[in-house]
Amino acid sequence: MTAPIPAVSGPVRFARFAFPPSRLGYCGPDDTDALSGYAAGHEDPGLREIAAQFGGAYPYLELLAGCARRLDPLDPDVVEAYWIGNRLLDTVPLHDFGTSIDDRFRLRAGTAWHRLDDAIPDGVPHHTFHVMHVMPWAGLLRDGIIDEPLRIIDRCRISWATVIGRSQDTTDDPSTPSPVLVRRTPLVWSHGRLQFGDPVIEAVESPIDVQPGDTVAVHWDWICERLDAAQLTWLRHVTERQLAAVRDG
Questions:
Q1: What's the pLDDT score for residue 141?
Q2: Does the pLDDT value for residue 6 go beyond 80?
């Protein structure tokens, strides 16, 4: 039987999802060592200061919190809504969402604004929307630049995967656990469309205890959280909705 998923605070939950791209230099402040400690479960007021420096993610959290009448942008449900998805996404009026995207990204998008503007009606304040519509990678795919944009979209979105077991590969540091093997469905670019490909087995890192058969959220080859059935349904729903918007755009 799968063990119950332990509850974590909203700030620690945010750190576990935000650390993987931060350590690669894609977002957030430079203090990745501190964020690593927070992702491992440590929490102090410095974590909130670091979270507020994520200029891409944090304004979505503020929007979600305000519309859901939550006082804290790092409320656990708010953090879950942005990275995974939950009913709080439905509390954000389209007008408020569109205004937020317009205020933050119209000037930055430049001539590509029309595609982002067209995506707003099917959008929600979720990480997948940011990856597939706000960031430039989907536009580069349409322009025929495939490999790197596809890699970034696929690794940066939050994927769901099933734990298979531990890799037999070992590291030079005996204190570092061996990678976790997961079965994951990647995105592919086929016939001019961004879509799901065939499942693959990959080795990823995990700061949390997982067992074979667990369903997990993966961000940049890093397991952020075990997923229950409701979370998996939300994550699939939001991802598929944004994929459809990319194909229609």
A1: 93
A2: no
